[in-house]
Write a structure and sequence with these properties.
Number of strands: 2
Number of domains: 1
Structural class: mainly alpha
Shape: rod-shaped
Largest sheet: 2 strands, antiparallel
Strand order of the largest sheet: 1-2
Order of helices and strands: EEH
Distance between the termini: 89 Å
């Protein structure tokens, strides 16, 4: 069974471990507790975003390389035309 407590602001019955009272919204845990919980998730999200950005940059680089080759081929063909 979950342990329960009471909100010091509204007196609502709440389960231990809640960060905020579901009745009045009062913060129940210290701010550093929320950072402990959210910190790793935010760090992981930043890593995923950085990896995604690198993948997009690689895709763009490959597309630019292809366009550059096509442009070089086009210009070579245009120069050879008498």
């Amino acid at each position: 069974m979950q342990s329960v407590g009471f909100c010091s602001q509204c007196g609502g019955l709440i389960e231990k471990g809640f960060l905020f009272c579901p009745f009045c919204g009062r913060e129940l845990a210290e701010k550093h507790r929320a950072e402990e919980i959210l910190g790793p998730a935010i760090e992981k999200l930043a890593q995923v975003a950085a990896k995604s950005s690198l993948l997009r940059l690689d895709t763009c680089r490959a597309a630019l390389d292809t366009m550059e080759k096509e442009l070089d081929d086009f210009l070579e063909a245009a120069i050879k035309i008498p």
